[in-house]
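Worked example 2:
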Amino acid sequence: MRPHHEQAIRGLVEHFAGDDTCLGVIVGGSIAKGLEREDSDVDVMLVVTDERYREQWAQNRLFYITGEFCDYAGGYIDGKFVDMRYLSAAAERGNEVTRHMANIMLSSRHLHVANAGIRQQGLLHIFKTWCIRKTCGECLAALARSG
């Protein structure tokens, strides 16, 4: 991940950190796969409460796009709002890696960034805070580095 992409993701996470209706951020696309270019956008899914999702649905505002956190030419964050049912469906019907990723995300309260197996699927999950230290014994990013 390029430093300017990381900075944009940090800005997004900080923006939603105080929002109790936002449960987490899933980063996908080329950045999560490690195939990003200098000018790549940041693809995300914002995992929100059922009530927030219903509000977004009623307003026909399920998509999110902003350049606010991007300091590079042409940079923007582009994503959609999803609810826990979406993750549950992925856990039930996705391929093996997607099911594994969804089950981890549905069962962990301390997960910051997903491990290398999940990265192959092209998804990074961040719960409210960006993992900086990668030293927490429960953090899969730390476990992936040590394993």
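The first helix runs from residue 3 to 17. Confidence is low (pLDDT under 50) at residues 109-122, 125-147.
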